[in-house]
Amino acid sequence: MIALANVLDGLTAQGELFEKLPDDVVRCSACAHRCKIAPEKRGICLVRLNRDGTLRVPWGYVAGLQSDPIEKKPFAHVLPGATALTFGMLGCDFHCGYCQNWLTSQALRDSASEVAVNLVRPISPAEIIKTARRAHAEVVVSSYNEPLITSEWAVAIFKEAKSAGMMCAFVSNGNATPEALEYLRPYLSAYKVDLKSMQEKNYRSLGGVLKNVLDTIQRAYALGLWVEVVTLVVPGFNDSNEELFETARFLQSVSADIPWHVTAFHKDYKMTTPENTPSKTLLRAAEIGREAGLHYIYAGNLPGRVEEYENTHCPHCNRALIRRHGYVISEYRLTKDGTCPSCGTKVAGIWPENPRDVTINGVGIPLPVY
Ligand code: SF4
């Protein structure tokens, strides 16, 4: 993996989320691992490194750049139908056995990911925003690998995106620190967090700590970010009624308005033993979310097989306000004030000023960008 390491180490800049310690040691605060890194060593994510007593962080490239429907992030309450220009880099602070993006996320950790060197494309923030304009993107998103570990680069891009009138969002494992959230807050509007389990032992097996993720959800919400939460429901891992109820109850304790996406697992990477999640399990999870008092529950990855759980309903009169099939919006009935046209109840979210701007029956698939 020397070739990939050399390429990535060459594409770095001095970081901002760290402190200097004695003997040229640095402590990184981009994620909750808070790695103490000795000179010429790397943090757990392997892409942030100590060079001569300062922290070098990923900079000046993307390993993925795509025009995605915002529904793919997934965000159900952020500008439905919008195009989200999404960028990703390499590396992760977790090592989830079921990662669908492992080729890029496990760079420098899994020797099979060496080929990811071919995805690396040097680029500037201005070029990314030019691409976003060409794609008619309203939102710029850091995703695909874990964005916290490349926060400085994300902020460089987000500054340009905000000046261009675009909204910015993170799609993250939630292993954040208060410092990282404060650092990102001026630029971010929306933050999607994966809440992968409520069991500490499960989080340990993925490389994380449950409390750090729960704290991130609470903090991001308290900071005024629009938060949506995803739980990939994996049979035998996190799909018991008790655990699903605990997850939903926790979210409800933060806010009943946080949308909860329960999504279907399929065999991938190193997790090939559990069966793919059947639709009946997602429906069970969604019912549990409703019983726990959540207002907005979505069942994902099985379009057309999850009854009403692709749609947004009014939390008061239950009228269907946004109908979806997969990533396609087929009907949008919210008013310009984001209220239900039948009963006037405010629906929480970030909605378009003009409902007529919502793309109905769009392509609903990721598109390449140039
Ligand atoms: S981003 Fe996280 S894993 Fe990477 S060096 Fe910083 S604290 Fe360690």
Structure commentary:
The chain has 370 residues and is of the alpha/beta class. The protein has two domains: 57 residues, no CATH class; 308 residues, TIM Barrel, CATH 3.20.20.70. It is 24% helix and 22% strand. The chain has a nine-stranded mixed beta sheet with strand order 16-15-14-13-12-11-9-8-20. Helix 3 packs across helix 4 and helix 8 packs across helix 9. The longest helix has 14 residues. The protein starts with a helix and ends with a strand. The protein binds iron/sulfur cluster. The site of iron/sulfur cluster has 12 residues, from loops.
Termini distance? 29 Å
What string, H for helix and E for strand, traces the elements in order? HEEEEEEEEEHEHEHEHEHHEHEHEEEEE
Oligomer: single chain
Shape: globular
**Proportion of strand residues:** 15-25%
In short:
By secondary structure, the protein is α/β, with parallel strands linked by helices. 24% of the residues lie in helices and 22% in strands.
Helix/strand layout:
Blueprint: H1 2-10, E1 12-14, E2 18-20, E3 26-28, E4 36-37, E5 49-51, E6 54-58, E7 61-62, E8 64-69, E9 83-88, H2 102-105, E10 121-122, H3 125-134, E11 139-142, H4 151-163, E12 167-172, H5 178-184, E13 190-194, H6 200-206, H7 210-222, E14 226-233, H8 241-254, E15 260-264, H9 279-291, E16 297-300, E17 312-313, E18 320-325, E19 328-332, E20 367-368
Bound molecules: iron/sulfur cluster.
List keywords for this structure.
nine-stranded mixed beta sheet, 9 helices, three-stranded antiparallel beta sheet, about 375 residues, single chain, TIM Barrel, binds iron/sulfur cluster, alpha/beta, 2 domains, 20 strands
